[in-house]
Amino acid sequence: MRSNNQTLLLLFLIASIFSTNLHYTDNATFIANYPEPDWITVSGIYTTWVIMTIIGIIGYWLYTQEKLWISYFCLIIYSVTGLSSPVHYFYGAMSNFSIKMHALIWLDLFTGASVFGFVIWSGLLLREWQPEE
User: Fold this and answer.
1) Which value, to the nearest 10 degrees, does the dihedral of the CA atoms of residues 117, 120, 122, 124 take?
2) How many Cβ atoms from other residues are within 10 Å of residue 27's Cβ?
3) Does 41 reside within a domain?
């Protein structure tokens, strides 16, 4: 069963990495077009993406090694890369965003929620962390 769950988590993680890569690259490339605080920089966007992606990959690896609590922690931290994308809307009206920006923001939210949802499903519903009897 855990092998199937590893595959599902891997699919969610790959989708999220792909989505966040698109969004963060677009945000960095077109930084002047995204309504956001002045302290957001191109290097900060790329650095955040790299660090958070590494945390997500470590979370997946820990999950495969059955270090579940620390993997859950890493995966929840990683899911913030997508879950936080709608924060853009605090800095500008909906009309300030192009259709592409809206699509990337909502795709990030969806893929981040899938990683977060996996942790909830695995940890709270399946209780995979409990020893098998």
Assistant:
1) -160
2) 23
3) no
Contact present, 6 and 63 (Cβ < 8 Å): yes
Look at residue 70 and give its three-state secondary structure: helix
**Predicted confidence (pLDDT) per residue in 8-48, tens digit:** 999 999 999 999 999 999 999 999 999 989 999 999 999 99
118 located within any domain: yes
Q: Take residue 106 and report the two structure tokens written for it.
A: 């909502």
Could you tell me the pTM of the whole model?
A: 0.91
Residue 78 lies in a domain: yes
- In the chain, what is the straight-line distance between the N-terminal and C-terminal CA atoms, in Å? 15
Q: Which domain holds residue 26?
A: 2-36+48-125
Domain count, the chain: 1
Measured in whole angstroms, the distance separating CA 59 from the mean position of its chain's CA atoms is 12
- Indicate whether 99 belongs to any domain: yes
Helix (H, G, I), strand (E, B) or coil at 36: coil
| Residue 94: C-alpha distances to residues 35, 53, 99, 126 (Å) | 10, 28, 10, 39
